[in-house]
Amino acid sequence: MTPPLQRILIAGAGIGGLCCALALIQRGFRVTVLEQARQLGEVGAGFQVSANGVRCLADLGLASELKDIATEAGGKQVRLWSTGQTWKLFDLGAESVRKYGFPYYMIYRPDLHGLMERHVRRLQSDAIRLGARVVGVEQDDVGVVVELEGGERVHGDILIGADGVHSRVRRALFGAGDAQFTGCVAWRGLIPREKIPHHLQANVGTNWIGPGAHVIHYPLRNGELMNFVGIVERTDWQVESWTERGSIEECLKDFERWHDDVQALIQGIQQPYKWALLSRQPMDRWTVGRSTLLGDACHPTLPFLAQGAVMALEDGIVLARCLAANAEHPEAALARYEALRQERTSRIVLGSAANGARFHNPLLADPVEASRYVDAEWNEQRVRERYEWLFSYDATAVDVSVGHSTATQA
Fold it and tell me: Which residues does the UniProt record annotate as the domain FAD-binding (predicted)?
């Protein structure tokens, strides 16, 4: 008999890493999260958590506290860049709960990150190690050794690389990999309530679409903040970093012919940041022996389906369930996790890229053609095709037993 798993190593204490850590600790595993930062914290930005992601957080026992930090979306809408013409995309709120069992939330990332960190530390006080930068990985058929910057070697039974788009674990297992610049630059920023025009303060997510660019905004912290993301096609900035500062003047220039509402939002941003959007093809595999990857480390996705963080949550729950159900066969458990997640996440990576092209279509330059285009691309049937399979997925119920087919679980 293979001895039971004693210690699981997780590289990265982001949303996905903490989700997986909490799910594993709750199932009786001992976890060590190796985080390179010397102070734990998340970049101050918002993200959307659809019902499939909220289901994962509820499975972690966070549903009650989540209500206190999240803004429940009443719906989503599309607006035209030049005229402001509005189309309802779909209802959320009670409709999301009725159809999928859970609400659709808009969350300030540091709030959720802090909540998950507190729960991890409460259950296992020494679970998170800061200032632990992974530089190398070795493994055999009985365990894994992670080398940290400075020379320390940490032993574990399993290694999970949840260390993001620039994953050191992925590099150690599979090499550097190639990333291609998409030709798009993203702006992001937060707008305080007092600088948000009153007519834009509804609890809805808004997608402005236009030729060569789009804007997404939605409220956070019950309307105290507005999250702003603007994507524009340009080739003169290729730095892939969430912490590079830009200026309001430069952002306004990128959207200078856009509707007054977009201009007003940009002018209210506290500090705009800009980063180049790079794309990566879905990986054929992300598990080697007793090591695997999670979230952006293995399936980084462009932010056009609002599913990047949600995929990391789903990964964390499915992986923890696979290991709990097959603890005596850890390599088979990791292979099962990969098999369950690969088709779905690959479809999301490709679907996100397709959505970006849809948001930026040249037909949107002409108001008459734009109206026809939106009616064709965002009618009820097309919206259902693009989102129903996303929101209805249940990471807590997919069959994690080794040896079963995954064909119906994507």
Answer: 8-349
Give kind and range of the element (H or E) at residue 399.
none
Residue 407: pLDDT band (50, 70, 90) is: very low
Residue 334's nearest CA partner among 73, 90, 72, 8 is 8
Would you tell me how many other CB atoms lie within 10 Å of the CB of residue 205? 22
- CA dist 408 and 410 (Å) reads 6
Summary count for the chain: helices (H), strands (E): 12, 19
Amino acid identity at 57: L
Report how far residue 28's alpha carbon sits from residue 17's, in angstroms, rounded to the nearest whole number: 17
Residues 203-239 have pLDDT tens digits of 999 999 999 999 999 999 989 999 999 999 988 766 6
- As a whole number, mean pLDDT of residues 52-79 equals 96
Where do the domains of the chain lie? Answer: 8-178+281-392
Q: 236: closest CA among 276, 196, 205, 282?
A: 276
pLDDT at 149: 96
Residue 108 a catalytic site member: no
The highest-level CATH class for domain 8-178+281-392 is alpha beta
Averaged over 125-134, what is the pLDDT?
A: 97
**CA-based nearest residue to 18, from 262, 256, 294:** 294
How do strand 180-192 and strand 128-129 relate by DSSP bridges?
unpaired
CB-based burial label for 142 (10 Å; 0-12, 13-18, 19+): exposed
Element containing residue 30 per DSSP (H, E): none
State both tokens at 369.
């053609």
Structural element, H or E, at residue 345: helix 330-359
If one counts every other C-beta atom within 10 angstroms of the C-beta of residue 333, the result is 25
As given in the structure block, the two tokens for residue 30 are 């001992």
Q: Which of 104, 218, 273, 387 is catalytic?
A: 218
CA distance 339 to 102: 26
Of the candidates 178, 154, 152, 155, the one whose C-alpha atom is nearest the C-alpha of residue 165 is 178
If you average pLDDT over residues 386-402, what whole number do you get?
95
Is 119 a residue whose pLDDT tops 90? yes
- Residue 397's contacts (CB-CB under 8 Å, 6 or more residues apart) are none
Q: Rg for the chain (alpha carbons), in Å?
A: 21
Structure tokens at 143: 């365990």
